[in-house]
Amino acid sequence: MPRGTRHELTGLLLEGDFYPVLRVADGGEWRLEITKAWRPLLGKRVAIIGVRDGFDLIAVERITLA
């Protein structure tokens, strides 16, 4: 999957070192580059829409409860 590809993912939102992390059902994890308020969603299942911006980094356009 090259950079710039659009993704719609669902998973568990977790605290990361610098970025929050989305853990998806297959066990993979994505770091999320996000500017919206996300802390109230920690530990909850969320759906995100965003664009791949690095190896495991998604620039989030929208985040909602799943």
Question: How would you describe what is shown here?
Answer:
- InterPro entries: DUF5818 (IPR043856).
- There is one protein chain.
- The chain has 66 residues and is an all-beta fold.
- It has no helices and five strands.
- It has strands at residues 6-14, 21-24, 29-33, 45-52, 57-65.
- The radius of gyration is 11 Å and the shape is globular.
Quick overview of this protein structure:
Pfam families: DUF5818. The chain is mainly β.
Beta-strand residue percentage: over 45%
Listing every helix as H and every strand as E from the N terminus to the C terminus, the arrangement reads EEEEE
Number of helices: 0
Q: What is the mean predicted local confidence, pLDDT?
A: 94
Radius of gyration: 11 Å
The beta-strand count equals 5
Number of domains: 1
Tell me about the largest β-sheet: 5 strands, mixed, barrel
Helix content: under 10%
* CATH topology value: OB fold (Dihydrolipoamide Acetyltransferase, E2P)
Low-confidence spans: none
Assembly classification: single chain
Strand order of the largest sheet: 1-2-3-5-4
Structural class: mainly beta
**CATH class, please?**
Mainly Beta
Give the N-to-C terminal Cα separation.
24 Å
Report the principal-axis shape.
globular
CATH architecture: Beta Barrel
Topology record:
Layout: E1 6-14, E2 21-24, E3 29-33, E4 45-52, E5 57-65
Parallel strand pairs: 3-5
Antiparallel strand pairs: 1-2, 1-4, 2-3, 4-5
Pfam family, one: DUF5818
